[in-house]
């Protein structure tokens, strides 16, 4: 997605330790048209995968997942990082260690919003080490649903997430791939 | 917004202690068309207020704020509840006590994404006691920006949020108003 790559190069910042700051258009502020375009790209790529539901993780996955759900006309479920009091009943849970925040995050999804007959498309903001997406995959498996694809806005190829997820045999589609953040320089594939 | 009121009555649940569960279409799962419609209603209501930016709070404010930003073609900023490592530089902060989660939440917004010349429209999921929205208002004031309106999906009129915010002299628009959750019954105005 060229407009995204341009934006990463013009407004992204490499903060060191492999951290890419894209707060200007993904993680803190959203550009409505860029986000819409992300949704259109995900929807076009996965249109023939028979998805019945989109799953993402709060916080930064919500906007691109919703933008995709809007085009595909699919419900979007966002896994909660802190189980709210409204989440009663059976809950699927899986944990991941967040590097940008440094703590263990347990994702929770109510069994009310993911069914065994669902075909689930996972959408998230980053594919880095793949641990958050792996937790979402675990939740899909706990629900007995079928995972049909994984879409991420930005993949950091040097952090191994694709390798972690490859054994699933599932299509992984990233809108932009970053091959290096060394020396403060962002190298977009 | 009639479709929202219908949905609250058919799928909302009064859990006691004034808590309304709307996880099926706001707080855990999103209905793409209903969310789109919310954005259209907010955009229509506030179209002449000269907003230049939309401000919300993660998590559940993001989808309706983005849906509004998409129609109004405005950038959407979501205040972070846990300051991520990417949020360096000047940050505006304000605190609120979350009742559904029971702890103090400090909202953070980078000064990079809200400017003194901004005219800010606040969009959030609930207006209950008004403390989260009040924290967002504080952040707008810290930035020296002008608040032009407040839009919420569901207002619980019996929790006093509108009274708390009324002294601001700002338009507060809710898509649905709940007048009572007593005895497990949802009374929509």
From TrEMBL, chains A, B:
One annotated GO biological process: xanthine metabolic process
Q: Has the keyword Glycosyltransferase been applied to this entry?
A: yes
Q: In which pathway does it act?
A: Purine metabolism; XMP biosynthesis via salvage pathway; XMP from xanthine: step 1/1
Q: What class of enzyme is it?
A: transferase
- GO terms for CC? cytoplasm
Which InterPro entries does UniProt cross-reference here?
PRTase-like, PRTase_dom, Pur/Pyrimidine_PRTase, Xanthine_PRibTrfase
Record keywords, A-Z: Cytoplasm, Glycosyltransferase, Purine salvage, Transferase
Where does this protein hold 5-phospho-alpha-D-ribose 1-diphosphate? 128-132
> Where would you find the membrane-spanning parts of this chain?
none
Principal cellular location given in the protein's record: cytoplasm
Q: Which residues form the Phosphoribosyltransferase domain?
A: 58-156
One Gene Ontology MF term: xanthine phosphoribosyltransferase activity
From the UniProt record, list the reaction(s) this protein catalyses.
XMP + diphosphate = xanthine + 5-phospho-alpha-D-ribose 1-diphosphate
- EC numbers on record: 2.4.2.22
Q: Name one Pfam family in it.
A: Pribosyltran
Domain of life according to the entry: Bacteria
Q: Where in the cell is it found?
A: Cytoplasm
- Record-listed xanthine binding positions: 20, 27, 156
Q: Does the keyword Glycosyltransferase apply?
A: yes
Describe the subunit structure: Homodimer.
* NCBIfam families attached to this UniProt entry: PRK09219.1, XPRTase
Q: What does this protein do?
A: Converts the preformed base xanthine, a product of nucleic acid breakdown, to xanthosine 5'-monophosphate (XMP), so it can be reused for RNA or DNA synthesis.
What PANTHER family does this protein map onto? HYPOXANTHINE/GUANINE PHOSPHORIBOSYLTRANSFERASE, XANTHINE PHOSPHORIBOSYLTRANSFERASE
UniProt record similarity statement: Belongs to the purine/pyrimidine phosphoribosyltransferase family. Xpt subfamily.
What protein is this chain from? Xanthine phosphoribosyltransferase
Origin species, per record, is Deinococcus cellulosilyticus (strain DSM 18568 / NBRC 106333 / KACC 11606 / 5516J-15)
**Gene that this polypeptide is encoded by:** xpt
């Amino acid at each position: 997605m060229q407009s995204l790559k341009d934006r990463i190069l013009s407004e992204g910042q490499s903060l060191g330790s492999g951290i890419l700051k894209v707060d200007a258009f993904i993680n803190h502020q959203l550009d409505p048209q860029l986000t819409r375009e992300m949704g259109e790209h995900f929807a076009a790529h996965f249109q023939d995968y028979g998805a019945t539901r989109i799953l993402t993780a709060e916080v930064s996955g919500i906007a691109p997942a919703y933008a995709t759900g809007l085009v595909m006309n699919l419900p979007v479920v966002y896994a909660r990082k802190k189980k709210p009091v409204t989440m009663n009943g059976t809950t699927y849970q899986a944990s991941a260690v967040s590097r940008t925040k440094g703590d263990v995050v347990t994702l929770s999804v109510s069994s009310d919003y993911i069914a065994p007959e669902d075909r689930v498309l996972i959408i998230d903001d980053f594919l880095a080490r793949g641990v958050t997406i792996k937790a979402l995959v675990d939740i899909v498996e706990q629900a007995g649903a079928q995972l049909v694809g994984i879409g991420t806005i930005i993949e950091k190829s040097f952090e191994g997430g694709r390798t972690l997820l490859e054994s699933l045999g599932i299509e992984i589609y990233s809108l932009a791939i970053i091959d290096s953040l060394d020396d403060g320089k962002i190298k977009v594939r």
